[in-house]
Amino acid sequence: MLYPIHNHFRSIINLNGLWQFDLDPDNSGVKKGWMQDPPGERIIGVPGSWNDQFTDTHIYFKTAWYSKDLFIPENLRQHSLLLRIADANNHLTAYVNGQKIGEHAFGFLPALLEINSAVKFGANNRIVLKIDSLFDRDTLPQWGRGIGHWAGTVMHADYFPYAGLNRDVVLWSVPPVRLHNLKVDTLLSKDHKKGILKIKFWFKGLPDRVSVVLQEKNGRVVMQGQQEIKNNEGLLELSIRNPRLWSPESPYLYKLQVFTLKEGVPQDEYNLPVGLRTISVTRDQVLLNGRPIFLRGFSRHEDFPVIGRGHVDALMVREFSLMKWLGANSFRTSHYPYDERQYQLADELGFLVIDEAPVVSFFWIKSNFYTSKKTFDWNRVYSKKLETLHRQSLNEMMARDWNHPSVIAWSVSNESDGTSRQANGYFKRICEYTRGIDSTRMVVHTNCGDMGDGLHNDISHQHCDMICLNHYDFAYNNEGRNNQPVIEKLERKLRDAKARFRKPIMLTEFGMCGIPGQHSLAPEYFTEEGQLEHVFLYLDVAKKLPFVVGTHLWNLKDFKTQEHSARAYLNFKGAFTRLMEPKLLAHMLKKRWEKSRC
Ligand code: GCB
């Protein structure tokens, strides 16, 4: 899906700001005609989760309504008007002037709804968005059993299910004959003297020609091409002599201009930064532009006080600055696709990204629904509806993010139980589906290498290009301060996984809580010293093993999670506090990474 841009042919009306807001705990708004006119009892800021903007909505996970009036001028009548809601968490139903214009089933990925049929031109229009923040067995993420104040209400994952309009809402006016999406794949000749751009186009409104221009940063035209269009689709191949490649050290971006024409007349223009690079995998390594890379960085969350999961550019820039300061070169968008500007900045600054679908802890619901494992029925878990949603989320994530050179892998899920025959079949289908849409990146499933239920017997890894392990033996299994057995066990597990799957391995999560300001002489649980020692033990093991191709610490920052007896309000595994102040770990990590790659 194209990111909104503004030019001769396209214009953006920004709908961020203050909206009217109503809670609808018994979901009776539709009966009361709120699609036309909700009462608007509160005012809320967008983007920003609703949970902490008020004093009574912190754990409100039911239905809420957003509404706003918008004047749409007469001169937009000839355009297609797209309401683009970058993240409505969790289930969106949208109305314009009382008319339903569409739905979107899950958060973290944009809803793009053409609203022309409901619009009054040259007049005020009422935009009403109903958001249901409820989880069940067939939603993404899935329902789980909460504890404490949460009892029975939440999704099954260790993060706070921030609800509402967390990202931009815009009305994008675009020409009726236009580019709908494009996929730019980049290839390199063996000697790197020739770069190839394979561009697939999708259009709306039956244009007859597409023309493209590739420019360097300074505006110098590198090459141009044209192609006839049939049935709203096109394919074009361009080659570049002596291309400048994209890499973390030198994140060079070309500028691609795409012109859509009909009968010789330009109808639309779209511009896209393009980075030329390749990704491939051998038995032991991940190669960027044919050279081995080591992924050093963090699995992260979008999380900040008050705004919750709301996107703010300045906060994002600060997080990237912190990662640069430490010497990180990569991150994972655990456990959902992030705001689109995160990937734009990663392209510009040279970060490598593992992009994760909003799928977390699938099938762990077995421990919620059934007390006895014997009565557990795997077949009940794999509903068609869930699989359809999972595929849809992958499809939408890839169609949104596939033009970012920073994205080097698709993570189809985090910590779903892949130990059963059924799960194995499920992940085989899911990985094949993902590769069918994009075969130019790695497909992975970040999974748990340690805890309960025999997850170390995960067989679904065999369908992935790299083995991604989240590992927390030491943090949860109370081995005390006797480190040796823990180190030996970790090393054994990594070697076993290597022998079994014969693929490169990455530690995608490991860490321990360090409560900021809590110190001890001995490296005890929950102290900054304890956190530091624990993380460094893991790094030492990873450093020893040549087939370990990356380490992502859990987490860059402390973050809010659900109420739980194992969480002292926040998950304190961050190298930085929730407000981005460095802990002991951050300072020591910087020193370590100045000298060593791991
Ligand atoms: C995990 C999960 C992550 C948790 C983390 C922890 O394995 O992927 O969501 O927050 O462990 O801190 O336990």
Q: What labels would you give this structure?
A:
598 residues; alpha+beta
What's the total helix number?
10
Distance between the termini: 36 Å
Question: What structural class do helix, strand and pairing data support?
Answer: alpha+beta
Mean pLDDT, nearest integer? Answer: 92
Could you say which small molecules are bound to this protein? (2S,3S,4S,5R)-3,4,5-trihydroxy-6-oxo-oxane-2-carboxylic acid
Task: Give an overview in words.
There is one protein chain. The strands form eight sheets. An eight-stranded parallel β-barrel has the order 23-24-25-26-27-28-29-30, surrounded by five helices. A six-stranded antiparallel β-sheet has the order 3-2-4-10-7-8, with no helix packed on it. Strands 1-12-5-9 form a four-stranded antiparallel β-sheet, with no helix packed on it. It contains ten helices and 32 strands. The longest helix has 19 residues, at about 485-500. By secondary structure, the chain is of the alpha+beta class. The relative contact order is 0.10. (2S,3S,4S,5R)-3,4,5-trihydroxy-6-oxo-oxane-2-carboxylic acid binds near residues 158, 448, 472, 509 and 571.
